[in-house]
Design a protein that fits this description.
This protein has about 575 residues and is mainly alpha-helical.
């Protein structure tokens, strides 16, 4: 397919965008979607606005948010390719992997571009284009006449860029077709696909917005930009037909319509994977690949069981969001989970006849997400439990209380213990060490409560040595409003923290960071986040209501392009 190979300058345009907060269009001569809109910024930009001047930016007025320019994550890329071609094309494995060194994989800094990434993006685009050429009749569905090609470019381009093409983009893609079609019409279509999939308009969530006449530091997002924001937040993929139709009709600028669409997306099972990703990253769960555990001790552990662990958590979260009690407390205290044949041995339960089946949990052993095998296995070692990792996860991610890094001589300070010392004995020795005890009390004290679970999350009452397990933990110096002191087992811990306002505030902070693609950086954003947390607590920790309130808010619908303190 030599005629299709594309010049790298197309993708290098995206390198100049960077990952910082970027400026919107200057003035109001372009629409919020970059498609040549009206000069009237008061509502004719297709953003559902009114003729009233917006209130001044501030904690008592308009609260726009600074939003970094974000590239599609590897997950979002795969999902988008699948949806662009209705499942007829396999997403390329060449697309660069998202960095795991950040709180959330959709943070702008996690998807910065290197020279190697440029090469991989080009290879991925050409890989997809090769498949398109091989399945040209399925993908295009018409006779490749001039009108057919123009129709394909208009439709494919609008879906790939998540908004209608502007004149220059349309001309560029048609020119790409003409160049490739010198070899064959299929080569022409392949070249259109290869070029489009390397353009910033596809690779990034580009949000220009319309700058307001009264405040040049505020941009109102257009309908197609709102559709993309919503779809990638809740489905990790491009907008579906209903969202696109509403955007085409300039209807998404209305907060009530935006909320209704958020609730529609949440009610669909396609939200489970995106919700699951956020919650896994919130709980700081490292990626499990099936080879992290000692095969002699855990012979059933492997890629199939890990896949089931991941799917179970997604199902649990989706079930809570769509259930009769869609609350954060329920996420911590749920009394049923779904299991399949891979997970049944961990629970000591009969395997379902096929697929998945609900399992009522023993209330003395398990409750909610913190006792799922995924969480317990991810926060463990190759051979056993880890009071440090499990306790640190709860302390830093659920309670939002940071733990300082260990001192430079931490290894030298480690107590000398016999090889068969239990995890509790190791933790207690660290807590008694003057150099280490303060921090380890914060972590191991909580982690002790999870000691009834082994390295893959199976219940146990004794260590491999035969020593009886004591699952008495201590919650030392928790946030105000969370009961401190001793507790016995993970269920009591989950119950204690489930309804605490401070825990729900911590959850909101993480959700907002995930949803915006970066940390809160301005006073205005902090005010909005604080009010969102207060409303979440007042709602009884209603999770869909949190999402609805967020997407209705100024920070979702308006961009701060440099002015908010």
């Amino acid at each position: 397919m030599h005629a299709r190979h594309t010049a790298r300058w197309i993708f290098t345009l995206s390198l100049t965008a960077g990952t910082a907060c970027y400026e919107g269009v200057s003035g109001t001569g372009s629409s919020a979607d970059g498609t040549g809109g009206s000069d009237d910024a008061s509502g004719s930009d297709g953003s559902g606005g009114t003729d009233d001047d917006p209130p001044a930016v501030g904690c008592e007025g308009l609260r726009p948010a600074r939003t970094p320019l974000r590239r599609l994550t590897d997950v979002q890329y795969r999902n988008t390719i699948g949806d662009l071609f209705a499942g007829a094309i396999t997403p390329s494995d060449n697309f660069p992997a998202t960095s795991l060194g950040y709180d959330y994989t959709n943070e702008a800094a996690a998807d910065e571009i290197s020279a190697l990434d440029v090469e991989e993006v080009m290879n991925a685009a050409e890989d997809v284009a090769d498949q398109v050429m091989a399945a040209i009749d399925t993908v295009v569905g018409c006779d490749l006449s001039a009108s057919c090609v123009e129709g394909f470019v208009d439709d494919f381009g609008a879906r790939a860029f998540r908004r209608p093409l502007d004149a220059d983009e349309r001309a560029l893609l048609l020119a790409a077709y003409d160049e490739g079609a010198a070899d064959s019409p299929a080569d022409g279509i392949g070249r259109v696909v290869a070029v489009a999939l390397q353009m910033p308009q596809f690779l990034y969530l580009v949000e220009s917005g319309v700058i307001d006449d009264e405040d040049p530091n505020v941009a109102r997002l257009g309908d197609h930009e709102l559709a993309a924001r919503l779809s990638y937040l809740l489905w990790d993929t491009m907008p579906d037909d209903e969202l696109r139709a509403l955007a085409d009709a300039d209807a998404l600028g209305d907060p009530e319509t935006l909320e209704a669409q958020a609730r529609r997306l949440l009610a669909d099972g396609r939200a489970d994977a995106a919700l699951g990703r956020f919650h896994r990253e919130w709980l700081d769960l490292p990626t499990l690949r099936g080879n992290e555990k000692d095969p002699a001790m855990y012979p059933g552990y492997g890629a199939p069981q890990v896949a089931s662990m991941l799917a179970q958590v997604d199902r649990l979260i989706g079930g809570v969001f769509r259930g009769d009690e869609p609350t954060l407390a329920r996420l911590f205290t749920a009394d049923t989970v779904d299991i399949d044949a891979n997970l049944a041995p961990i629970y000591g339960a009969p395997a379902p006849a096929s697929g998945w089946a609900p399992l009522a949990l023993d209330p003395t052993q398990r409750a909610g997400i913190l006792t799922t095998p995924l969480v317990l296995a991810a926060q463990a070692t190759q051979i056993g439990s880890s009071t440090v990792h499990r306790g640190k996860m709860v302390r830093t991610r659920v309670l939002c209380q940071p733990i300082p890094p260990p001192p430079p001589n931490a290894t030298a300070q480690a107590p000398q213990l016999p090889p068969d010392a239990t995890e509790r004995e190791r933790g207690e020795a660290l807590m008694e060490n003057p150099e280490c005890g303060g921090c380890h009390l914060q972590m191991d004290g909580i982690g002790f409560g999870f000691e009834n679970f082994d390295a893959i999350g199976a219940w146990r009452t004794t260590y491999p040595t035969g020593t009886a397990i004591d699952a008495t933990g201590i919650l030392a110096s928790p946030p105000e409003g969370v009961e401190s002191g001793e507790f016995v087992g993970a269920v009591e811990l989950a119950t204690r923290i489930a309804a605490a306002d401070e825990v729900s505030t911590c959850y909101v902070e993480h959700f907002v960071r995930h949803a915006r693609g970066g940390p809160t950086t301005t006073e205005v954003e902090e005010c909005a986040s604080d009010d969102l947390a207060a409303a979440f607590a007042e709602s009884g920790q209603d999770l869909p209501q949190l999402v609805a309130a967020f997407v209705r808010g100024d920070g979702f619908r308006f961009r701060d392009v440099g002015g908010a303190p």
